Amino acid sequence: MPKIVDRDRYRRELLAQCLSLFAEQGFGTVTMRQIARSLQVSTGTLYHYFPSKAAIFVQLVEEYCSKDVAAFFAQAPVQATLREKLLNIMAFCLKNYGSYQQQFLIWVDFYQHCQQAGHPDVTVLRQFWQRTQQQLVTYLQLPLVQVDCLLVFLDGLLLQCLYGRSEAEIAQQAAAFVELLAPDH
Q1: What is the full DSSP assignment across 112-165?
Q2: Which of 39, 41, 150, 178 has a beta carbon 3.0–4.6 Å from 86's, enabling a disulfide?
Q3: Which fold has domain 7-181?
Q4: What is the block-wise mean pLDDT of the chain (185 residues), using blocks of 10 residues?
Q5: Distance in angstroms (rounded) separating the CA atoms of residues 88 and 13
Q6: CA 149 remoteness from chain centre
Q7: pTM of the model
């Protein structure tokens, strides 16, 4: 009897392993052959699921970002004040801070690789930003410019790892930002 393979589940398993590989070695330096070897699959199998290294990255962004956004909204309070919603966003981001740092640094590496290769198209990152932006506009009921400010602030928090900031310091910055947007009076 032939072996039945859940191709979508197998593709997601391969993607999960690719995230770690990109984090360890960098997007720009790793090759499809090295990815296949690391995943313990043939290059043919890898190309069957992903036509290129860039395709792996695009699917990683889609998979992880969709999962993260869905996880946030699954636990997000709908009937809450703006302050409560912002505090919830900050708590969720702080809870997942390490994972988001890893993703963010891989995105920067991907961007640099595209720039150096003369392929500056980062549509997948822009699309993710715009989807998240729209979902937060709806959730927070804030103007787009204020949601942009929130997203820029969250990206800035991720960069704080480069400066050796502690999680306690990051949490203080998050609380201060919430106070700016929704003072507790």
Answers
A1: HHHHHHT----HHHHHHHHHHHHHHHHHHT--HHHHHHHHHHHHHHHHGGGGT-
A2: 178
A3: Tetracycline Repressor; domain 2 (1.10.357)
A4: 70 85 86 91 91 89 88 94 96 91 86 82 84 94 96 92 87 94 85
A5: 30
A6: 18
A7: 0.83
